[in-house]
Amino acid sequence: MAELKNDRFLRALLRQPVDRTPVWMMRQAGRYLPEYRQTRAQAGSFMDLCRNTELATEVTLQPLRRFPLDAAILFSDILTIPDAMGLGLRFAPGEGPLFDHPVRSGADVAKLGVPDMEDDLGYVMDAVRSIRSALAGQVPLIGFSGSPWTLATYMVEGGSSKTFGKVKAMIYDDPDTAHRLLSLLADAVTAYLNAQIQAGAQAVQIFDTWGGVLTPRDYQTFSLDYMARIIDGLIRQHEGRRVPVILFTKGGGQWLEAMAATGADALGLDWTTSLGEARRRVGDQVALQGNMDPSMLYASPERIRHEVEALLNDFGPGSGHVMNLGHGIHPDVPVAHAQAFVQAVVELSPRFHT
Question: Active-site residue 15, yes or no?
Answer without folding.
Answer: no
